[in-house]
Structure formats: structure tokens, C-alpha cells
Specification:
- There is one protein chain.
- This protein has two domains: about 5-50, Orthogonal Bundle (Arc Repressor Mutant, subunit A); about 65-185, Tetracycline Repressor, domain 2.
- Helices cover about 70% and strands about 0% of the residues.
- The chain is built from nine helices and no strands.
- It has helices at about 5-25, 30-35, 40-50, 50-65, 75-90, 90-105, 110-130, 140-155, 170-185.
- Helix 1 (about 5-25) runs antiparallel to helix 2 (about 30-35) and helix 5 runs antiparallel to helix 9 (about 170-185).
- The radius of gyration is 20 Å and the shape is elongated.
């Protein structure tokens, strides 16, 4: 039975995600993507045009998948850090794609990422308005700090043997959430 065009397209996207996450744009090879997708290079080019267009498509798809379910409340921005910590651990391949895009000079300004950042900026502003977040921070700085804390363990050099390659620890998650709480807490509220 022959594959439909949509089935081939999905196999190409899956193989491309694996290839790009492992090798980036420059190191990825169309012939490996085609082989792993059980498709010809001609079919791949017919669906996506060229390697950069395919990378951008996968980046946009990953961005939608990664950011779409994200929610945050003004009363619990540290809780958002915990949610992002979980997503970053569960979707490392997406974060690799985002990193490769930055290193290759491809702007990581997908519609989904921009929408999420705009939404989070509004939540940070509301959190400041209700006194849940210190007003010393610009709302965009709050958003950047939250993502940085959530992704810290994936960005940090391996400090202990065997830490990576296993499911994240609840202790690391707790540290990220507590760091966010302390960092964002309005001055004078912590008792310190």
C-alpha cells in the first residue's frame, strides 16, 4: 500500500526534527532526513522547497507545540517556572531546535513564541499591579528571568556525574520555583 502525501510529509517532519535537533541547520543533511523518512529527496524538496524552509517549518511547529499550552497567573508566576521546567525536561528536542536557531542567526520570533511572551508580559504587569511581583523589574525582565530559571539545568554544565540522561529531579524543580519566588517577591515582604 502506498503512503499518502500527508503521511510522507509527517515522516519528513519527524525525521527533520530529529536531524536538526542533533546537528543544527549547518550539520543537518537532507539525504539523512530523506532516508530516515523513507522518502526521496525529490519528495522532500517538493513538500518544503529547501533545507532552511524545512528547518523554519519544524521550528514553527515545535514552537506551537511547546508554547501553546502555557498558562500563567499573576498570583503565581513562580508556579509558571515549575511548569516551564517540566516542559523543558519533557521536550528537550524543542529546546535544541530553539538553540540551533539562535546560533544560526535564525530569529526565534515565531508567532507562538511572540504571543506567549506578550501574554506573559501582561501577566507580569498584572502581578506587579496587585503586589505579587516587585515593581523594580521591568515586565519583560520578569519574563526573561522566569524562562532562564526554568531552563537553568539544561543550560548549565554537568556538575554531577549521571545527572543528565535521567528524568528531572523534583529537587531541581523546587529550587527553580523557590528562586523565582524569592527573586520576584516584592521588597519588604520576605522578612529578610
Amino acid at each position: 500500500m502506498r503512503s499518502t502525501g500527508e503521511e510522507v510529509r509527517e515522516r519528513i517532519i519527524s525525521a527533520a526534527r530529529t536531524e536538526f535537533a542533533a546537528h543544527g541547520i549547518a550539520g543537518a543533511r537532507i539525504d539523512r532526513i530523506a532516508t530516515n523518512a523513507h522518502a526521496s529527496k525529490e519528495r522532500l524538496y517538493a513538500h518544503f522547497g529547501d533545507k532552511l524552509a524545512l528547518f523554519r517549518f519544524v521550528l514553527d511547529t515545535d514552537s506551537e507545540s511547546f508554547f501553546a499550552p502555557i498558562t500563567a497567573t499573576p498570583e503565581d508566576l513562580p508556579g509558571f517556572v515549575g511548569t516551564m521546567f517540566d516542559r523543558s525536561q519533557d521536550h528537550v528536542e524543542h529546546l535544541r531546535m530553539f538553540g540551533w536557531a539562535r546560533m544560526a542567526g535564525e530569529p526565534f520570533r515565531t508567532a507562538h513564541a511572540i504571543e506567549t511572551v506578550d501574554r506573559l508580559r501582561n501577566v507580569a504587569e498584572e502581578a506587579q499591579r496587585i503586589g505579587a511581583v516587585d515593581t523594580q523589574w521591568d515586565p519583560e525582565e520578569v519574563v526573561s528571568l522566569m524562562f532562564t530559571l526554568a531552563f537553568a539545568w539544561l543550560q548549565t554544565p554537568e556538575l554531577r556525574t549521571g545527572v543528565y540522561g535521567r528524568r528531572h529531579s523534583s529537587h531541581e524543580r523546587m529550587i527553580a520555583v523557590e528562586a523565582a519566588r524569592r527573586l520576584l517577591e516584592p521588597r519588604g515582604r520576605s522578612g529578610t
